[in-house]
Sequence to fold (332 residues):
Amino acid sequence: MTIVIRNQKSTTPTQEISHSRKLLNKMVHNWSRRAQVVQAKSHNLDLNNPELAFDTTRDDFRSDLLPFKDHPAFLGAPFNIQQKILSCGWIAYNEKTVDIESKVVSPACNHIIYQEVPGVDNGVGRQIASDTLVDEAYHILLVMQACRITREQRGLQSLKLPSFNLVKQMILEQGKYSEPWQKILVQIATATVSEVFISDYLNLLAKDTDIQPMNRLVVDTHRKDEMAHHSIFTNLAQCIYTELSPQQQEFFADVFPLPVRWFANSELEVWQTMLEYIGFPKTREVIADCAVTDEVNLSRIDYSGVISLAEELGVLNSQQGIDSFARQGLLK
Ligand SMILES: [Fe+2]
Ligand SMILES: [Fe+2]
Fold:
């Protein structure tokens, strides 16, 4: 059964919408030139390339991205344990990326393709959602290849991670509402925030020439597509928000800031599983200390892009929007 969020407004498209539609139209035409999956044969991302051969002496990940990077138990751990923890960090980073692609962004694209979202239920909206689905499927392939190589090289083949907090929170939030349009808007809000954040999330590793060369190249290839996705999702959000009814706009204003906090979560359950798996002796102490000081730390992320988008959409023009962002600690 197709569920459609009904457009209860009869507004004429604003200038911003027509600008967003024009941009989306342009991006549809650019897809075959910019998509990394189309260029896969011509660029040098061949994981069998000897220049990308796994170098066991290199770190797989950056220590400053660990939630316990300054904890004395980590800093005092033997080198081989620190290196294994960094490999776990890389695997979790990739598997969280797969979760974002497959459980957050792809379902949002499918809602658009099935014409369940107003403002983007036209040819351009559906085409760009299809292009994005192909991009995300390619990213899953890339990161899973990188993950497999790391697991084999570091003896982490049987490590199995629990669900990531980001997805768990989104599903919990959707479960609070009975109307299908509410669940869809939670998905769209989470996908939009993810696509605004993901370039920054990838940037740090994409430019790090000290880590495993294969890892850097995989992240950089992904980043190139995500630069376009950032623009795609901000323009999709513009087209969608303007076409929502006042009730739906209020709902969107309420849920839009939530994924920012979900992103700021340190994913301690995942970390506990990984540290226990590798036999890190001070797992309980490290996780307990992080839970007190750093479980949700907004200072770890730059959410200015989400605030700017909320301003552009007009979410922050209403007291409801301001209150909703303030409740999540996002307004100073
Ligand atoms: Fe992606
Ligand atoms: Fe994306």
